[in-house]
Amino acid sequence: MNPREKNIARVKALLEKNVENGATEAEAMSALAKASELMKQWYISENDIKDPYLGEKCILKQFPLIQSGYNYRLFYNDLTRLFDCEYYYNSKIIAFFGFEEDVELCGYFYNLIIKTCLKEKDNFLESPEGIVAKKYHHGRTLAASFIKGFMLRIATKMEDMYKDKVSNLPQQTGLMVVKKEQKVKEQFEILDFKIFMQSSKELVFEEIGFNAGLDKGDEFHLTQGINSYQMENTKQLH
């Protein structure tokens, strides 16, 4: 922690010395004066000492579960971790819990990724490579293998993005992100959902479909998805 960060922490501690917390009026006034002095000396603004998530509440929003008979769950954990959310799902819906914009991003990417995957799966099965592969393997097995490869690549990309996000954050901002993640987790636990994890049989995958899925997943650019999300929401404001 550098000197400025130490003094930001001191200011926060001084501002906690108030009458509501048991300090006398004289002690509170003295602490306020000292905090004001430190803020001027170290150019500390109100934003530096304010918890940006203090007054913001988490929301729970449900999205229809995309039904197709295939397993997409491979990327759920990495999606919600990337956008600081929690989630649960059943046979009809998937629900994301967190701050509003993060929840909307999870819902947007959930739909975008799965719909893109299904489209690419159909393209693969109708391609010359897919047509030949179907002569030796069941079409559904090839499709499931393609989806598994695609989702594995997406999950890996999201994991890398999360690591980059955390490692590139300034120390103070990083602490705020940790606070944000903790708040989401704490509020989610308060809801006390009785969630039962269902075990599923591991899909047997054919190498041809799996590798094709990996390749198409590699072509999916998450940053373009974020830009598209921002553009769509900007258009809605006009």
Automatic annotation (TrEMBL):
Per the database record, which ranges form the DUF2786 domain? 8-44
Q: Which domain of life is it from?
A: Bacteria
Which InterPro entries does the record match to this protein?
Answer: DUF2786, DUF7168
Coiled-coil intervals in this record? none
Domain named DUF7168: residues? 79-171
The name under which this protein is listed is DUF2786 domain-containing protein
Instruction: Say which species the protein is native to.
Output: Elizabethkingia anophelis R26
